[in-house]
Amino acid sequence: MSSEYLLLSLGAAVAGVYVFRDVIFGMSSKAPPVVTANAKPLVEGGGDPRDFVARMKAGKKRLVIFYGSQTGTAEEYAIRIAKEAKSRYGLASLVCDPEEYDFENLDSLPDNCAAIFVMATYGEGEPTDNAVQLMQNLDDPDFNFSKGEHRLDGLKYVVFGLGNKTYEHYNFIARKTDQKLEEMGATRLGPRGEGDDDKAMEEDYLEWKEQMWPALASALGVEEGAGGDTQDFVVTEETHPIEKVFLGELSARALNKTRGIHDAKNPYPAPIVASRELFRVGGERNCVHIELGIEESGIHYQHGDHVGVWPTNPEIEVNRLLYALGLWDRRDTTINIVSLDPMLAKVPFPVPTTYETVLRHYIDISAVAGRQTLGILSKFAPTDESKEKLTKLATDKDHYHEVVANGCLRLGQVLQYVTGHSILEEPNPNNTTQWAIPFEVIVSCIPRLQPRYYSISSSPKYHPKAIHVTAVVLKYESVDTAGVPVRWVYGVGSNLLLNLQYAATSGHENLVEPLVMEGEQMERAQVPLYAIDGPRGAYNANSVYKVPIH
Predict the structure, then answer these.
(1) What is the three-class DSSP state of 245?
(2) Helix locations, 166-200, DSSP H
(3) Is the N or C terminus of the chain more exposed, i.e. has fewer CB atoms within 10 Å?
(4) Which residues, listed in sequence order, are joined to residue 121 by a DSSP beta bridge?
């Protein structure tokens, strides 16, 4: 027993020395602060980083823009609104993820300011994950703002919603946001906007904003023309060790090969454990079934869940833009990108990287080119004739719909079309006119390539270690349009899965052959091929292909 007491006494003495080590040894009473990469900056001059009103006042912002976004689209529209406010009216904006802020002081927004809500509806009339708390605060009559009431008298606001009419609760969250704000005494500026992703989200947005801006400008006492052309980013060519350059990795963890939680910011490269073609009727349709292993991922799923698959752009569109931008010979050059206003426009992908990587992995060059983007790029047209053509596409809604929308033209194809080149030929220096478009403009105009979501077709009870995806491959004919040849158009995500299914069963070396047979119509098809090995071969381990998912 005496030895036990001796040990206890010795332990107590050591603990006492440790607790009072600063006094005994004269060490500083304050340890150096630990700074983490994810630490939120304080308001300039100190203060609560979750107080958006204080941040607005510190940064002299007159607009606060909240976005409820699940896939990133609402965030993109929020940033576009902020950029246009600055360029047209000289209004500075604070773009906010609502889950990073508190809303008690929403009733304290200064009279010369306005709040803009860009709200997507998710699932069956639900708010996006980052807007749950915001909607609860607006909906709860017991939630009091800073003045002690559930009232927002004097608040000026704008609402734009993102939805899909094929769902029962179309734009429910935007409508509810508008209703609750109005019930609490706030004043809407201009009409409520509703974008339909099933039809023409972009056109809905363009039509709405042209009615919204005059109403907002009048309420805030500003005039158009007070802004000006301002850059969002600066792109510089630099030299970095190749192991520090992002070549398509979606996160720093993927680049550094460190372990961590897998989510939308750090997708898991899931190995394909099985794949097969479910039907192929006369070469006109394909349906792929792919089973993705998740045994070592920490990912779990439930019935009714979706899985996000991170795609890449098809090689033909990557090459088309490299030629059009005059970057083919510099495609592997390392670049760094810096935001001139991080509060307005964050660099949307990891850097340093390369020109080719940005076009292949990080921005959505496969989407139908938008009218607003075409208007911005028209000033860089190589000839007066091409400038006139591009300007007409940007300003004439009907002409744009006939040529670009019906023709399903991607940006690279539009640049070829207005310069008189065929969009059916394999792009090369001889059939692609170079445009002097600064790369920072491309980064600013084209949104981030987003994951494609698929319903999980497996049961977590019977397949807890795998996620099954069963998808009909998207392929359709463009509308017959004057000047634009009818051709087959291929979806990005499902055709990537088709490439992977084909490679997993037939071998990568056979991917030079068409994956979808068109019989006598092959002259109208450019079957997309993808860089399925992934950055540094990360998605191909001894012919076991992987798919980045979350």
Answers:
(1) coil
(2) 172-183
(3) N
(4) 127
Which of the residue ranges 27-41, 136-150, 374-388, 449-463 would you say has the lowest mean pLDDT? 27-41
Task: Give the end-to-end CA distance of the chain in Å, rounded to a whole number.
Answer: 58
Planar angle of CA 117, 118, 123, nearest 5 degrees: 120
Pairing of strands 114-122, 126-127: antiparallel
| pLDDT (mean) for 16-36 | 37
Q: Answer for the pair 501, 290: CB distance below 8 angstroms, yes or no.
A: yes
Q: What tokens appear for 157 in the block?
A: 């606001």
Query: Which two three-digit tokens encode residue 116?
Result: 């803009």
**Neighbouring residues of 107: CB distance < 8 A, sequence distance ≥ 6:** 145, 146, 147, 149, 151, 152, 153, 154, 155
Side-chain half-sphere exposure of 45, counting CA atoms within 13 A: 6
Characterize 93-105 residue by residue with b for buried, 16 or more Cβ atoms within 10 angstroms of its Cβ, and e for exposed.
Answer: bbbbebeebbbbb
What is the C-alpha separation between 491 and 476, in angstroms, rounded? Answer: 9
Size of the chain, expressed as the number of residues it contains: 550
Report d(CA 89, CA 209) in Å as an integer. 14
Name the more confident of 151 and 550: 151
pLDDT in tens, 190-247: 999 999 988 788 889 999 999 999 999 999 999 887 666 678 899 999 999 999 999 9
The two beta strands, 93-96 and 63-68, are parallel
The two most distant CA atoms of the chain are separated, in Å, by 101
Q: Which residue has the higher pLDDT, 317 or 167?
A: 317
- For 54-89, the pLDDT digits (tens) are 999 998 999 999 999 988 899 989 999 998 998 889
304 CB-near residues (< 8 Å, 6+ apart)? 455
Cβ neighbours of residue 427 closer than 8 Å, sequence gap 6 or more: 316, 319, 320, 323, 324, 412, 416
**Mean pLDDT value across residues 519-540:** 73
Give the C-alpha distances (Å, rounded to integers) separating 251 from 110, 245, 255, 450. 39, 12, 7, 14
Interval 394-405: pLDDT, tens: 999 899 999 999
E strand spans, 396-519: 452-455, 466-472, 475-477, 488-490
Q: Which 3 state secondary structure label does DSSP give 324?
A: helix
> How far is 52 from 550, CA to CA, in rounded Å?
30
